[in-house]
Amino acid sequence: MAAALVLAAGSVTALTATTGSAHADAQVCDQFGSVTTPGGYVVQNNAWGTSAPQCVTQVGDGFQLTRADGSVPTNGAPKSYPSIFAGCHYTNCSPGTNLPKRIGSIGSVPSSITYQYVGGAVFDAAYDIWLDPTPKTDGVNKTEIMIWLDRTGPIQPIGTVTGTVSLAGHTWDVWRGSNGQNDVISYVAPSSLTGLNFNIKEFLDHTVSQGLATPDWYLTSIQAGFEPWENGVGLAVTNFSVAVN
Predict the structure, then answer these.
(1) CATH number, residue 198
(2) Is it the case that residue 127 has pLDDT exceeding 90?
(3) Among all residues, which ones are annotated catalytic?
(4) Residue span of the signal peptide, if any (predicted)?
């Protein structure tokens, strides 16, 4: 079983979150704790795969992983998914979000992100985008899109490589599979990207073309962060923005 296969199955266990108000440099150490950013996004600790202490510090519309104790085998699921998101994740919705939104009614989804990486860690840096036939605000969705901008160590997405595609000015390896609860399509950068300015709608349209969603389905959340297996202190999203038009 591929590492990320276990990962995605485990990620749906993050059923609760504690939402805080917006702060400057607010630290979150609760396993499923979260805090709202000045720009109206949510930073979540989401340490679903470990009982070891983990903390994230929200800085502006971004965050840094400031504690990441423990490690897990690289042939299994990661420790966590510390991330920032817009939309709704297990009933935790970002303030003023217009998600869920029907895919067919979306004109564009401009997004910008900048990552900060560190050595001595095994991780992937990934967008995690959720789609469902219904406007869900809780629970697991039917289809998951992952966009991996970087990865280190012997980790891989769910399923197998099915080909390549050129989107957002880059060529991506396309992986497809299922974790038993939802379909997953992953777009993996062949080499490390530290940032991206792009239209997420390109990935939505390609996913629809692959039969993993239809225009009548809903985009429910857009998340960006890290899945660490070993260490990870210092990993950061230094800037994040997204709009669903």
Answers:
(1) 2.60.120.180
(2) yes
(3) 144, 227
(4) 1-24
